[in-house]
Amino acid sequence: MTSYDYQEALKNAAKTMVRVKNPRRLLKMIVRFIVREVGLHHASILMFDQLKQRYIFVDSQGSHRIPISLVKLDHSNPLIHWFSNWEKKVKLTKDFLILEDLKAWIQDPALTGQHPTLKTKLLSLKEVMETLKATVCVPGFYKNELLGVLLLGGKLSGEPFLLEEINFFQTLANDASMTIKTAEFREDLIAKNVELEKQKQELEQRLQEIAELRKKEQETYYQIVMSLAHEVNAKDPYTAGHLQGVERLGLMTAQEMGYDMSGKRKDILVASLHLHDVGKIGIPDHILMKPGSLTDEEWKIMRQHPVKGAKILEPLTGFKEVANVVLHHHENYDGSGYPSGLKGEAIPLEARIVSVVDAFHAIVSKRCYSKGKPIEVAFEELERCAGTQFDPQVVGAFIRAYQRTLNGKYKKAKSASHKNVA
Q1: What would the DSSP string read from start to end of 269-282?
Q2: pTM across the whole model
Q3: Number of alpha carbons in the 13 Å side-chain half-sphere of residue 357
Q4: Model confidence band, residue 41 (pLDDT cutoffs 50, 70, 90)
Q5: DSSP string spanning 345-393?
Q6: To the nearest whole percent, how much of the chain has pLDDT over 90?
Q7: Contact assessment for residue 305 and residue 288, using Cβ atoms and an 8 Å cutoff
Q8: How big, in percent rounded to 5, are the helix, strand and coil portions of the chain?
Q9: pLDDT one-digit tens code per residue, 113-145
Q10: Of 280, 300, 311, 414, which residue is the catalytic one?
């Protein structure tokens, strides 16, 4: 599977987890999915049984199936003990186990010599993994609680597992663990027969816990953020194509300005164009969708969305520059914008591009509370605000690029302000 395939697989898996209420059924679906899509000899999954206080096999698929009804592991099992007590052990990889790595550790005298009991533990681990014919073991946690373990056989191709694949398995295991815990929470609430309002509050509190944990999962968090960005625009049916429109206009403008359109820089620009308004998910609908003018207090709340958006992106370690663009996309070229009052080239270039194309798209788009204006009017408005709200160079590049895409169908007005911009 390619990197794109893994992202799509995680996105689809997340949707499936929301729909599946039976944890065992979900785990079986995960095992079948891994065996089929990754191409493994076999795969099995353990889940903690609260009643029996043991880890039981929920499902096993492939050429080396484990008799799931017969094999049970308790907390004293070397595999379970390794993952459950990882903080107390030597500084080794604890969030997954690879059999070949384990063998290398055992043969490393520098490692085992410093820790007399370590070699015995590693040998016990090796014996368990070989008995279960596991090439890779991946635990699934909720907070620090071990809820399950994925046991994976080798690939049919004979190739070693890539780190990207291990990360994929970890995300599946942890997401499944959180889904299982969520189901347990719901069952507990129903069993306690609490009052309806109290039940709702507890459920929301616990679901919030899970939502916060999901932020730490880098592979799935980007998909969640993108979904939020689309949801902001989906609230207004007239702006359903806003994100796609803004992306197209932004890339067109950047290319006209000679912006580096290869590699990371383009990724930063595209992500910024998509996510610039993601902070509006934290703005109440009665303000976001208000047909009339906002009050001073409502504007104060509305102007919080760049800060909210930057905070949403904060957990994504590779999105620091994108978060900075989101934070500053409402800064004005003359320093009169918000939230920091940045001026001129102190404002990130991507933020200046977002500001222009977002304003243009808003002017020409039909909304539930306003009719879209002609392109000529939008151009005039951009030119009028060039040097105050907008970067004149960005405005000029945008208009030139837009005109070229229309193959000369639009004839720009000859005005002194436009000459200054161009």
Answers
A1: HHHHHHHTTGGGGG
A2: 0.46
A3: 32
A4: very high
A5: GGS-HHHHHHHHHHHHHHHHS--SSSPPPPHHHHHHHHHHTBTTTB-HH
A6: 35
A7: no
A8: 60, 10, 30
A9: 777 788 899 999 999 999 999 999 999 888 888
A10: 280
Q: How far apart are CA 399 and CA 411, in angstroms?
A: 11
Separation of alpha carbons 326 and 351, rounded Å: 7
pLDDT > 50? residue 337: yes
Which H or E run includes 410? none
The candidate with the shortest Cα–Cα distance to 343, out of 323, 359, 328, is 328
CA nearest to 96, candidates 86, 109, 108, 87 = 86
pLDDT digit string, tens, across residues 196-209:
566 667 777 777 77
Known catalytic membership, residue 11: no
Q: Are 412 and 378 in contact (CB under 8 A)?
A: no
Quote the pLDDT of residue 412: 46
pLDDT of 354 over the 90 cut: yes
Alpha-carbon distance values, 349 to 226, 259, 268, 273, 319 (Å) = 22, 9, 11, 12, 16
Mean pLDDT is highest, among 60-69, 156-165, 330-339, for 330-339
What value does the mean pLDDT of the chain take? 80
According to DSSP, the residues that pair with 31 across neighbouring strands are none
The confidence score (pLDDT) of residue 364 equals 87
For the chain, report the end-to-end CA distance as a whole number of angstroms.
47
Residues 6 or more apart whose CB falls under 8 angstroms from that of 408 comprise none
> What residues pair up with 46 in beta bridges, in sequence order?
57, 149
Our CA angle for 15, 193, 186, nearest 5°, is 15
Amino acid occupying residue 229: A
Helix (H) / strand (E) element for 287: namely helix 285-288
Question: Averaged over 75-92, what is the pLDDT?
Answer: 78
Q: Which domains are assigned to the chain?
A: 3-214 (3.30.450.40), 218-421 (1.10.3210.10)
State the Cα angle at 121 between 119 and 126, rounded to 5°: 90
Radius of gyration over every alpha carbon of the chain, rounded to an integer in angstroms: 27
